[in-house]
Amino acid sequence: MSLLGSIVSKILHPFGGGSAEAAPSSTGGSSNPASTATTGSSTSGAAPAAAGGQVDVEQVLNDMAAKNPQTLNWRTSIVDLMKLLNLDSSLQARKQLADELHYTGDKDDSASMNIWLHKQVIKKLEENGGKVPADLKD
Predict the structure, then answer these.
(1) 3-state class of 21 per DSSP?
(2) Which parts of the sequence belong to the DUF3597 domain (predicted)?
(3) Residue 104: exposed, middle, or buried by beta-carbon count in 10 A (0-12, 13-18, 19+)?
(4) DSSP state of 24
């Protein structure tokens, strides 16, 4: 599975409820297995869903962060987001993610690349049925 696929899958399908695609869903999210999740507490064993059956990305990540011993700023850092998901966050892994997302900038300028990667990952989460907080959208 691609890095992007792993990210999307761990957030939108944390219990293996479906396979995540790196491309936007053409079904508008109606076939999203997480759409049957309850809007209540995440202790129900299902991914938290927002109104309309979307997975609440912010709630899922905040719940994961609360259980993580490290203080990770997933809202602004691609490195911290990847760490929160127990994925390799090394520069090499981020360059691989940049390739998957067709980054055209200078990969040696890791600060610019990281900002771009974070925005793209958030965008892909939304395209694949996630409810993304307004302050994280471009």
Answers:
(1) coil
(2) 4-133
(3) exposed
(4) P
Please state whether 20 falls in left (phi above 0), alpha (psi between -120 and 50) or beta: beta
Angle CA(26)–CA(31)–CA(36) in degrees, nearest 5? 145
The residue with tokens 């998901």 is 85
Q: State the pTM of this model.
A: 0.75
Beta bridge partners of residue 131, listed in sequence order: 56
Q: What is the rounded CA–CA span in Å between residue 113 and residue 104? A: 9
Write the burial class of residue 71 (CB in 10 Å: 0-12 exposed, 13-18 middle, 19+ buried): exposed
Task: State the Cα–Cα distance between residues 123 and 138, nearest whole angstrom.
Answer: 8
Written as tens digits, the pLDDT of the chain (138 aa) is 899 999 999 999 876 655 444 444 333 333 333 333 333 333 334 456 655 578 999 999 999 999 999 999 999 999 999 999 999 999 999 999 999 999 999 999 999 999 999 999 999 999 999 999 999 987
Token representation of residue 39: 């809007």
Query: CB–CB of 74/7 below 8 Å?
Result: no
CA distance 93 to 82: 10
